[in-house]
Amino acid sequence: MLEPSVPTTLVQQPADDPTASKPAENFVTCIHKVKLVDIVWNITVTWAKTVIGHSLYITVENPQDDNYYTCKIDLKTWQFWGKKGLKTFRVAEKRIDVFWDLRSAKFTDSPEPDSDYYVAMVSREELVLMLGDQQKEALRRTKSRLPSEGASLVQKKEIVFAKKCFCTKTTLGQDKEHSIMIECSLSGPYDPEMWINVDGMESIRVPNLHWRFRGNETILVDNSRANLVGCA
């Protein structure tokens, strides 16, 4: 299932944070708008990665009030049986099922799987939210059908703890996937410095990071805005 064009925020933070009381985590957070129980809800999907393993958080929130529901899935590297499962909860008195199968999921540096997986949210026999590239397998297992009005991705944010290089992919513009790379250099005439490339082309360079440890910049990719927010 192709995800629509969305504004993307990339946040890079240092790995050695003295204020952190737990191991540094990398996050990928996506906010979807989904019609659920005849109401448009915000569904926030967050992938988290630590040295222990991966976690997935799904929060269903009604923007018209303070009601929200959260489902957490732990995917520890040594627990193979936890990589396929089902969780059920209720939203506005209606049953919601979340199915997942990440036994063959391929991960890169990102907390979000790259391929060979699915996470499916089902309500009233409709596949209201589909994550991953195994839609046929998800439909077969959940015995559900595609909804008349699919979910729309409205925001994607990545929080990354890294020292030198970070790569990711996201959909921008006309449903086209783009490669984004953030690199830092600790030596050179503008020591240290950072630059951000989109599809191999340099989009922004930040010299003298000692003096510019915070900042933001907006660039255009296929006529879509991408907000680059940095903290070094």
Automatic annotation (TrEMBL):
Q: Where is this region: Disordered?
A: 1-20
Spell out the protein name for this chain. Uncharacterized protein
Q: Where is the composition biased (Polar residues)?
A: 1-12
